[in-house]
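Internal ticket #5521
Category: modeling
Description: The requester needs a full-assembly model to guide mutagenesis choices. All entity lines are attached below as received. Residue total reported by intake: 222.
Assigned to: D.W.
Attached entities:
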Amino acid sequence: DAKTTQPPSMDCAEGRAANLPCNHSTISGNEYVYWYRQIHSQGPQYIIHGLKNNETNEMASLIITEDRKSSTLILPHATLRDTAVYYCIAERQGNMLTFGGGTRLMVKP
Amino acid sequence: GAVVSQHPSRVICKSGTSVKIECRSLDFQATTMFWYRQFPKKSLMLMATSNEGSKATYEQGVEKDKFLINHASLTLSTLTVTSAHPEDSSFYICSARPQETQYFGPGTRLLVL
């Protein structure tokens, strides 16, 4: 599975958009980009995933570059409850997920 | 999304005792479930893949005789930590996937005294 690189931490002001980057320069053609988040002392929560088209759901938007070597998760209006560790994972659909270090997002009032 | 539950949510036990953790898929059937372990301030590490009707597959370095996994039905997998020691204290998380997306349980925090 492709290795992903994320910044270890980011801050965001409450009410502003949070843009979380992820690099996956060695991603293969059949690997999806998955995003999960983990709020303190809870199990990971699925956010969104995509292959090459941009995706949007009620939680977030996923923007994947045309060459698929990087992506950005966008939380349009961050709240304090969005403070969590966000994991970007590149994996073939149906395979088990391997977690990296993730990005610790701190939403500040 | 799909719902995965775990029981108990936290457990404290004495060193040398065994602890069983249950993982249930509440609204779907899962032939495969995954068990992860997470130490403080660390990422999740896959321990084993639980397969309904057959033996679990363990990741390298995970002792199968210490971490017994039983996938008794299409909605239940159990992880038993045998002869627990303080170094087994951790956050144990299971997951399953109804189709192609993996969903996680809320986790079980184990403290071995």
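Resolution: model delivered.
Comment from assignee: The longest strand of chain A covers residues 84-92.
Ticket closed.
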